Structure formats: C-alpha cells, structure tokens
Amino acid sequence: MNENIINPTWSAVDGYIVEQLLPKDAVLDAVLEANKAGGLPAIDVSPTQGKLLHMFAKMVGARRILEIGTLGGYSTIWMARALPEDGRLITLECEPHHAEVAKANIASAGLEAVVDIRVGAALDILPKLAAEANTQSQPFDLIFIDADKPNNANYLEWAMKLSRPGTVIVCDNVIRNGAVIDGKTSDVKVHGSRAAFEFQGSHPKLTATALQTVGSKGYDGFTIAIVE
Ligand SMILES: C[S@@+](CC[C@H](N)C(=O)[O-])C[C@H]1O[C@@H](n2cnc3c(N)ncnc32)[C@H](O)[C@@H]1O
C-alpha cells in the first residue's frame, strides 16, 4: 500500500492549477533549480501546497512562524512572504548542507532579515527555542512540521508548548499513499503518521482534521489543527 502512486492526470491538473492561479515566479523556480544543483532530494512541498501554506499564514495573520524541516527553503520562502516586515520565521534543519543551500535561496528571495535558520536536530533546538524570551512573550502563530516523520508526535508536543490559543499547526505527509490505515506495518514513517493522528485526536486543546491530497508529488496529505 505504501508504494509511491503517480498518476499523470494528477500532475497535469496540478500544472493547470499553477497556470491559472499561481503567477510565474522566477525566484521560486530558481530555488528549485538551486536545490537540484545542490543535490537535495526533491521532497519540498509542491507549488500549490506552498501557496496554501502562504495563505494559511495570511489567514491567521501570522507574525511568527515555526517550521521544522527546511530542506532548501522552498516552503520557508512561501510562508515567509506572507509575514509583515517585522515578522519572523524560524526554521530548523539538521543537515548543514541543506541549511547552506536554503540560506543562499532565502537571501536570493530577499528574506534574510525575516528568516532565521537554526542548524541541528530539531529535538535539541526546540527546548532552547522554548526558553527564549521572544518565544515566551510571543508564541508562534503557525507551525509547519515537515521533518523526520517518526518524530511527528514529539514535534506536536513541542508545538503545543510553543503555541497560544488560535495557533494553527500543519503536519505534512501523514497519508503516505494510504498506508496510514495499516496499523500492522513495519514502516516507521507510517507509525509516525499514526502517532500524529492519535496525538491530535486525543489532545484536549486541539481541534484537528486531515485532508488527503493528490498532485505532482503523488498521493499524500496533511493534518491541520487549531489550538483551543
Ligand atoms: C521533507 S524535507 C522539508 C521540505 C521543506 N519543508 C519544503 O517543503 O521545502 C525534510 C527536511 O527535514 C530535515 N530533517 C530530518 N530530520 C531532522 C531533524 N531531526 N531535525 C531537523 N531537521 C530534520 C531533513 O534533512 C530535510 O531537509
């Protein structure tokens, strides 16, 4: 059930959506080129998903965004562009090479004053972030979890500590070609998805749902939750 299903119609329709609704963007195209040239895996969000994250940030009037899993900064740039001039996006990345490529991409997008890349394992950085005065006085408005999937529930636990009522939390890649319903699988990423569902379904302060998605990146989906 967990093999990567690719349907040419999904990609073609994604192409149509991009053509109709997403203006041509030389900066974001160059980011994907730089990621490829840098040897990064093409596991960034799709353009339509990037725009959705941008719109979520606008919908919540985000001033502070946390991202766990930067890669080359593609989703980072989409979200950071929704911030006001004095806004802040903190993004966590454990691979120094990914962070280096992301840093250059973020500079090309003119967002170096807004984006703060922290390099290291997210579970090491999150406690330090929680102790910072800025985080204590201003919790994050939007949190995007898109790193190592087995740690999803650990990241959600931290997200709760770094949030306020109204914070929106998005956790990506939780459907995994439908494998999420297979409780007997040995795939640790699927167990990470199921742990994310269990966490959000049982947390008294979270209202959550999930959407299955198809498109140029195949069949997957994300959860979205709001802190009550
Ligand atoms: C799916 S990619 C992120 C894609 C990015 N959000 C985008 O859409 O452009 C996941 C990233 O998380 C990073 N990562 C994996 N485990 C991590 C950890 N424990 N701490 C921080 N980053 C991690 C990987 O190196 C990779 O760059």
From TrEMBL:
Gene3D superfamilies (alphabetical): Vaccinia Virus protein VP39
Domain of life: Eukaryota
Keyword list, A-Z: Methyltransferase, S-adenosyl-L-methionine, Transferase
InterPro entries xrefs: Cation-dep_OMT (IPR050362), SAM-dependent_MTases_sf (IPR029063), SAM_O-MeTrfase (IPR002935)
GO biological process, one term: methylation
Gene Ontology molecular functions: O-methyltransferase activity; S-adenosylmethionine-dependent methyltransferase activity
Keyword S-adenosyl-L-methionine listed: yes
TM region(s), chain numbering: none
Family as reported in the entry's similarity comment: Belongs to the class I-like SAM-binding methyltransferase superfamily. Cation-dependent O-methyltransferase family.
Protein name: O-methyltransferase
Organism: Plectus sambesii
